[in-house]
Amino acid sequence: MKELKYQCMNCGTCCSEVPGTIEEPTYKRIPLYPDEADRLIKIAKKRYIPFKIIEDLVFPDEKNQKILVVTWRVRLDNNNKQCAFHIKNGCQVHDMKPLACRAYPLAIKQEDAFNFKISIDPLCKWVIKNYDNLCNIDFEQIKKIFPHEYIYAQEHLNRNKSIMLKLKELENSNKIKIFRKISNKDFNKYLKQWKRVEIRV
Question: What's this model's pTM, rounded to 2 decimal places?
Fold first, then answer.
């Protein structure tokens, strides 16, 4: 275990759509904070790369009738089913990658609307290759095996927590009101009708 250190295999799994079925469709979630989305869109336009994003984590604000966008996610519904920045030899924006990409294969998992945790993506080829050594590791071992990725995952987690704290502060000061219970029908209606407001920290 002491010798085990994560080494990216440049396989592109982290940049690619996750196969699903008609009964159980699924998607790879590569979240972007608004500033990260701005940066990548700017680069894509400059390089004529067909990079697209879609809303990821959103909250309907009943008081202002707005959709609060916490994160966007990379759209992978192109011909290659991959991030538009992915190429054969790796990422075209490696030095400017978002936190979610820098942290991979460590991922932020949403437990509920306001709580997250760090986990290991089981689809990573390096993780699959070393699964027997990884299946029962503890938190301290995660930090040793994924030293650089853990730093970014922790930063990612802390940023999520800061955003959730900001939302709670806005609610407590009566500036917004987030639905605690909402039907899918109403939620989809508000998504179509209400303007977007990004939450930035």
Answer: 0.87
